[in-house]
Amino acid sequence: MKRRERTRHLIELGGLVTKAGIVELTGDDRAIIYGALLDIAARLRGEDRDQQLLLWQRRGRRGFAQGDEA
Prior knowledge:
Elements: H1 3-19, H2 22-25, H3 30-44, H4 49-66
């Protein structure tokens, strides 16, 4: 991935963290945010990976459709 594309991608991912309200809910504590992301990664390594992905996908699509926090 080229540098400009990578930068845009990272900015978009940061926007999702902000859109979900994570920054405000954690007081912008990066250790908490990182810990939550590690928890997500652990769940994705588990046996119910497909069910979890489907659940999160549905919630995300609803959130985008509503235009507010998911």
